[in-house]
Amino acid sequence: MKNKKAQIEISFNWIFILIVGGAILMFFIILSNVITTDAEKTANIKTTERLKTILSAAENNEESIKELKELGYEATFLCEFGQLYYQIKDKNTEPEIITTNTLFVPKTIGKSKLNAWSTTYQAPYDITTTLLLTDEKTMYLFDNSSDSAKKIYYAFPEEISKELIDLSSNKITFEDQGHRKYIFVTGTNPEPQIAPPNLKQKITIIKIPQNTNQGEIKFYDYKEPNYGELETSTKAFTTQEILQGAIISGDSELYECTLNNIHQREKIIAQMNIKRIELINKTYDSRHKCSIYFSTTILTEPLNGIINALENFDTDYINHGNNIEELNKLNNELRRISCPMIY
Predict the structure, then answer these.
(1) pLDDT above 70 covers what percent of the chain?
(2) Residue 50, Cα to own-chain centre: how many angstroms?
(3) What is the DSSP string of 34-88?
(4) Are 139 and 181 in contact (CB under 8 A)?
(5) Domain boundary pick from 104, 136, 168
(6) Which segment of 19-28, 302-311, 321-330 scores lowest on mean pLDDT?
(7) Final residue of a domain: which of 105, 136, 167?
(8) Looking at the 3D structure of the chain, how many domains does it have?
(9) Alpha carbon distance 343, 333 (integer Å)
């Protein structure tokens, strides 16, 4: 009996030890997860604050480039429901919204020196400040045999990673310099042979037109899983500043996301100018020299044309550009005859 009782006590002791040991192990697993989650949240907060500082610095230094320290983490950018988000790469964190929705940025940046600057988008009056952000691990390679590619090369700041190369032989031969991404810009040759082939996953090719103020951009990416086939996406642009933004992004979805946000602002300002024209018209007698401009559709027609063209921009970008040009001519005419200008 005593032996049985001892055996039962030993069994209960082992069960107790296993339960307590399991509880302790579970506690440390939970604690470890909490610490990891807290660390990731802290990293996300720090990255958010750093990005805010970077974007603010760029916004306040128009046309001049700002060299900035690295983020410390790689951030991946994405577009959801027409809004730009970022997420720390390889971390279990939720995407964070980018409040500056006129930002042109590559799909991934970080763990390297950042470069940021801003330009003003005009159509023809000031619409918004566009921000451009990239890093030294994103390399921009421009076709030396293309006049339009060379023009953008020289328009880009010297501080970013860029280089002129010869694509006339339909072959790219270069060594991987350790960059995360290579963005090739050409005006003539969208499908060069890549040597060595294993670099295809790092490459995007962008074909731009001869006219750098208006036209279509074609994005070429090698498709997974074997990167043997090129996938093409065509997007439109007006103004060289927007074209530069497309090249900085190197990604058709991110480019379209930012461009749509810019166009929303453009529509609102066009609608405001139509209201302003209607109000000015009420101040004039029909015999006044300025009345013919404000009492008819002479001024509102190009503004409505801009709004309508933005609804289907990729197919109607030429009308968009023509209406901007017409509006600019009318504004100069109003200045000449000393009438209130549209802008």
Answers:
(1) 73
(2) 18
(3) HHHHHHHHHHHHHHHHHHHHHHHHHHTSBTS-EEE---SSEEEEEEETTEEEEEE
(4) yes
(5) 136
(6) 19-28
(7) 136
(8) 3
(9) 12
